[in-house]
Amino acid sequence: MSDPVAGSTAPTSDAAPAPDAALTPDAEPTPPIIDAKLLANELVKNLESPAVESQITPAVDPGPEIKFKLVYNKTNYEIVMGENRTVRELKDHIESLTKLPRSMQKLMFKGLVKDDTKTLKELKVVKNSKMMLVGTTMSDLVAVTTKPSSAEIAANTSSVTKKEALSKQKIHQKVLDKGKPEDAMPGIAGVKQPLPPHPLNGMVNKTGGKVRLTFKLEEDSLWIGTKARTEKISMSNIKNVVSEKIESDPNYHIMGIQLGPTELSIYWIYWVPAQYVDAVKDTILGKWQTFL
Fold first, then answer.
1. Is residue 216 within 8 Å of 130, Cβ to Cβ?
2. Bigger pLDDT: 39 or 117?
3. Which of 26, 70, 81, 255 could in theory staple to 77 by disulfide, Cβ–Cβ 3.0 to 4.6 A?
4. What pTM does this model have?
């Protein structure tokens, strides 16, 4: 009878070490469980990255492609996008092309584009449309805000003091002496405003003839109209725009639009309202302009 008892105690003594074996460092069950968790975490991270990108590009039908032109700093870019793409998506694409941050982009298409959620179709962008981009990169801003050296300041001061004011030069003074045109638009000194939705008029040229400026942003062109004719000029062909306030009436400026390679090709315009001068320059030359 002692044998069955002895036999029954043998399995008990053999099963006792099993819990101890599970606690030893060399036990195999625990490491595979930990490795699997780490691997799962890595997989989750990898899967989350594309999910974030998919939030930027909505999963919608882009629609039929539109090929149109973007003008920035006198450079033409060909853009091809679906008509259901939004302005925000367009700006993201522009940033990849120009390195101009989206937050600093101002798009002009039949006026300032203010709503980033609108689609190209809603803006009525069609094949061969022209859109203008104004803005400046951070590196350009740093260069502009860099404090000039004392030598540069002295040189600039010297050149300014030697230069006679435009309104004092005989060629311009004889035009100004005729007085401000009766139909001149109101001028406001010390204020910057965006271009109005209508042409700038009530100005005169060097011969005293009436002048109006019409900005065709969708065509990247400037129309200079007189009583006799209207010249349609591509803004990419304009070399420079200069201006200076009229000393007798600082609410207005003398402005010169350089149409050729030399200063002899400057087309002078008088009694330009001061508040629009910067907007005119920035629209033609493609520089950054703050729109109020």
1. no
2. 117
3. 70
4. 0.51
